[in-house]
Amino acid sequence: MGKIHAVITGVGGYVPDYVLNNEELSRMVDTSDEWIMTRVGIKERHILTEEGLGTSYMARKAAKQLLKKTGVDPDTIDALIVTTTTPDYKFPSTASIVLGKLGLKNAFAFDLEAACCGFLYSLDVAATMIESGRYKKIIVIGADKMSSLVDYTDRATCVLFGDGAGAVLVEATEEENVGVQNSFLRTDGIGLPFLHMKAGGSVCPPSHFTVDHRLHYLYQEGRTVFRYAVTSMSNDCALIAERNGLNKDNIRFVVPHQANIRIIEAVAKRLELPMEQVMVNIEHFGNTSAATIPLALWENESKLKKGDNLIFTAFGAGFVHGASYYKWGYDGSTVEQG
Ligand code: ACO
Questions:
Q1: Which residues does the annotation mark as catalytic?
Q2: Closest residue (by CA) to atom 3 of ligand 1?
């Protein structure tokens, strides 16, 4: 038997209907379309506004579309990973809720939390599980309802984020030269002061005090995070390119986490790639955290051909960061969009 590789065989996605644009935000806080577009590159984001719906709702929508598009028998799925910073509940896991709604009978499910690097980490975990030979089909979902932890009175953060979910099916194959090829994943562990939510965890459980002092929102020192994000994502991409003989002539697309268009442009510049070879969805989705990369694949699936060289890269709270080299496994233009 040949070596087992892990390959993505389908992509699903979901964003909520409600669109929060810069004009509406300008009426909520002291900001402008001009500031947001030049400093961050976001025009609008999708927000899950329906009461009582959380991350699992979007994750389920994306996964249902994935199941429909791939036609895979749900009973053959071995595992489900949901990567999110905004779980429905502290427990049980969001993955267990999604699994129940999808009716997966022969799978186990767990959440993986790695902030905006969640998809990058989860894909690697799924690939390793598959390469071990023990599992054959794993669904990986990156989903976040960032609006649930954004303070809509803080102009420095509320313009940045959106809600959404992207799902991929990862399968075992003995075919050479497709799937996850190589990865470089790191956690620096120095990021806590710069990007976190102050209350709600075991250090500072919810109380009247934490609510009164607005401690249940995302806190970010943007300038510091920006600096680390540019350096880490650019260096990680350069390293993965050098390790694998990749350059501007043989990379088809870079698929970066979408936090700021200026970070994305810096990564492209480091790899000497024109922006046409960089997947960008920040303008209309904002930063959807763990969902940015699978949503980019979902939107651009029809442009992808078997054998295309892709680099995925991300950076997030922690700090977590990394890049991976992925060889696309099917012709996306032939897929019927569900
Ligand atoms: N509208 C108008 N002015 C604003 C806004 C706004 N929405 N937000 C901030 N400003 C002002 C600030 O008050 C400041 O004014 P001052 O100079 O009078 O004090 C000025 O703009 C500059 O503020 P900076 O914070 O220095 O702006 P910067 O150019 O750094 O952009 C941003 C801020 C967009 C947040 C940027 O720093 C960034 O993208 N950081 C990285 C985000 C990131 O990568 N996050 C990681 C992933 S997120 C996750 O893991 C959950």
A1: 116, 257, 287
A2: 31
